[in-house]
């Protein structure tokens, strides 16, 4: 059993909501990112202590993840998103097509969200980059949303980002 | 297919008089090009500013990283080329992520600072958010509810509606409405975390899970446009220094065809017998005292004008008098005691009133209590309930 799967097995995350979409359909309109993140955040946050503010925070995080998968730009395959909950934390599992040549990029980008230089890299990106890279999106989630991010790799043409968002604590 | 374009979902404005550049709404562009005009507008604002430029993002509900980086770039470039300018980003304590994101800019560039807009901006907020006031708020709602439960259906309250109670305080009105009228959805918003904590505790104790209590600024709400069949806002326009701004927000979140219901007082019309003169003098002074702190507790009869000016139609106004004969007279007396403590004990002191004035001021409240508890006495507190329909 892989380390990531062992960790999943230990926790008590309950599934709340799941959707799948053909990538071709998803990529047909940029507004899908906004619409899906807004709708999902509302559904998921309705029974949080402060549903409006929780939904606002969650929508921000979901939107960034969806925009990242949108920018991958690969029309074949499916986009999948499942949201789970364990206490104050929502877990987002986002799967999207990713060619093998890009897997190493995601491995490195995810690992950089967990090391001590994450904040310095994030500030440097704001200072120097004209537009945010996918790495900066992940750093943003780790720094501004206190997210813990992992990568699940399967032998399929997709990758799965696992993002734990402890938003209930931040909101309240 | 999208029916709403990016530009329709956000607003960017520059007010040269206050040197304030405001961003509001949802900014989630695919590329920087989509917001290029706004970035240019920001750069022009920076060029025009002298000293301090305020960047108001209080009503910025959503912004993606593409937009954040574009605006951040303009801020940082300005700091490089304009050592004479300071940029102050004003965020809201309601939208937590904006403070988190913009705060990083001040770590990069000390010319940029972040200020969190909060209750200190409302002159009277501290008086009404005092937790010691909570028991009396419950009593007030208990006494007004006897009247409002019959009034509300005439103003759009019915089963199955989506409603929002703005400035919900300790949430007791929302609980009573839920029980009496069974709306399908209730959002209850307030700017006092202490009041909301109390509201949530009460809801938990009574097993109520379907009231959505939310922290928010009534004049800058996160709630989306055109959502609610009925928006209630009780005893609150009168304690905001800009009631028209608040009413505009209530209008915004109300569905076309839905109604906004407001209640307000005219404090100088509080009355009692015996000792009517002393009582009347004190309540006239109450109105002046609140006016000193930019609050209009005489607003009740002005409700019709406020609703009309805000664009409502089919305006309905009625008034009712809470009296010592509504249930236990001691409840009425307890409310007046609480008013005396806050108005004479805190507000008049803060205004710097001399002791002899405060003593006379207190006497009117005591006489009101005397009237309320007198076996043949009568004491009243008039309230105006009004509503208007948002045009279709």
Report the major sheet of chain B: 8 strands, mixed
CATH topology call of chain A: Heat Shock Protein 90
CATH fourth-tier homologous superfamily of the largest domain in chain B: Vaccinia Virus protein VP39
Return the domain count of chain A.
1
Class of the largest domain in chain B in CATH? Alpha Beta
**According to CATH, what is the class of chain A?**
Alpha Beta
> What gap, in angstroms, lies between the N and C termini of chain B?
25 Å
What's the quaternary structure here?
A: heterodimer
Q: Low-confidence segments of chain A, ≥5 residues, pLDDT <50?
A: none
What would you say about this model in short?
The complex is a heterodimer of chains A (172) and B (392). With 172 residues, chain A is α+β, with helices and mostly antiparallel strands. In chain A, 52% of the residues lie in helices and 24% in strands.
Can you walk me through this structure?
The complex is a heterodimer of chains A (172) and B (392). In chain A, α6 (118-128) crosses α7. Chain A is 52% helix and 24% strand. In chain A, strands 1-2-3-5-4 form a five-stranded antiparallel beta sheet. By secondary structure, chain A is α+β, with helices and mostly antiparallel strands. Chain A contains eight helices and five strands. Chain A has one domain: Heat Shock Protein 90 (2-Layer Sandwich). Chain B is an alpha/beta fold and 392 residues long. Chain B folds into two domains: 6-117, STAS domain (Transcription Regulator spoIIAA), CATH 3.30.750; 125-389, Rossmann fold, CATH 3.40.50.150. Helix content of chain B is 43%, strand content 25%. Chain B contains 13 helices and 14 strands. The longest helix of chain B has 23 residues, at 329-351. Chain B is globular, with a radius of gyration of 24 Å. The chains are: A alpha+beta (172), B alpha/beta (392). At the A-B interface, α3, α4, α6 and α7 of A face α3, α4 and β9 of B.
């Amino acid at each position: 059993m892989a380390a990531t799967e062992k960790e999943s097995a230990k926790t008590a995350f309950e599934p709340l909501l799941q959707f799948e979409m053909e990538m071709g359909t998803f990529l047909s309109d940029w507004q899908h990112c906004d619409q899906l993140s807004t709708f999902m955040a509302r559904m998921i946050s309705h029974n949080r202590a402060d549903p409006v503010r929780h939904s606002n925070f969650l929508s921000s995080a979901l939107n960034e993840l969806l925009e990242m998968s949108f920018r991958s730009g690969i029309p074949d395959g499916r986009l999948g998103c499942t949201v789970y909950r364990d206490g104050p934390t929502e877990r987002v599992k986002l799967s999207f097509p990713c060619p093998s040549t890009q897997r190493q990029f995601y491995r490195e980008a995810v690992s950089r969200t967990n090391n001590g230089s994450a904040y310095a890299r994030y500030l440097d990106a704001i200072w120097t980059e004209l537009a945010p890279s996918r790495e900066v999106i992940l750093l943003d989630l780790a720094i501004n949303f206190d997210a813990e991010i992992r990568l699940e790799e399967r032998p399929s043409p997709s990758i799965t980002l696992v993002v734990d968002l402890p938003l209930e604590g931040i909101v309240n | 297919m999208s029916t709403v374009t990016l530009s329709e979902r956000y607003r960017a404005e520059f007010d040269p008089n206050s040197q304030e550049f405001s961003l509001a709404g949802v900014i989630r562009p695919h590329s920087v090009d989509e917001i290029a005009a706004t970035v240019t507008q920001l750069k022009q604002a920076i060029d025009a500013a002298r000293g301090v430029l305020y960047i108001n993002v209080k009503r910025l509900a959503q912004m993606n990283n593409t937009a954040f980086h574009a605006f951040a770039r303009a801020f940082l470039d300005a700091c490089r080329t304009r050592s004479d300018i300071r940029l102050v980003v004003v965020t809201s304590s309601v939208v937590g992520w904006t403070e988190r994101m913009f705060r990083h800019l001040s770590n990069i560039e000390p010319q940029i600072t972040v200020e969190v807009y909060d209750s200190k901006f409302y002159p009277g907020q501290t008086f009404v958010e005092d937790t010691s006031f909570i028991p009396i708020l419950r009593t007030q709602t208990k006494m007004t509810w006897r009247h409002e439960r019959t009034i509300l259906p005439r103003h759009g309250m019915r089963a199955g509606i989506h409603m929002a109670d703005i400035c919900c305080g300790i949430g007791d009105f929302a609980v009573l409405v839920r029980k009496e009228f069974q709306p399908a959805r209730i959002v209850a918003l307030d700017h006092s975390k202490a009041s909301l904590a109390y509201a949530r505790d009460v809801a938990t104790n009574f097993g109520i899970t379907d009231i959505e209590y939310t922290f928010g600024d009534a004049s800058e709400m996160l709630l989306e446009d055109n959502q609610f069949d009925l928006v209630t806002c009780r005893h609150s326009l009168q304690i905001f220094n800009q009631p028209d701004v608040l009413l505009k927000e209530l209008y915004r979140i109300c569905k076309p065809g839905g109604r906004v219901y407001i209640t307000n007082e005219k404090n100088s019309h509080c009355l009692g017998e015996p000792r009517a003169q002393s009582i009347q003098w004190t309540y006239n002074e109450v109105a002046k005292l609140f006016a000193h702190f930019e609050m209009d507790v005489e607003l009740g009869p002005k409700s019709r004008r406020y609703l009309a000016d805000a664009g409502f139609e089919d305006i309905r106004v009625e008034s009712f008098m809470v009296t010592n004969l509504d249930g236990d007279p001691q409840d009425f007396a307890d409310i007046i005691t609480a008013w005396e403590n806050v108005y004479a004990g805190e507000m008049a002191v803060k205004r710097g009133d001399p002791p002899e004035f405060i003593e006379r001021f207190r006497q009117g409240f005591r006489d009101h209590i005397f009237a309320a508890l007198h076996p043949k006495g009568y004491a009243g507190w008039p309230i105006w309930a009004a509503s208007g329909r948002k045009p279709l």
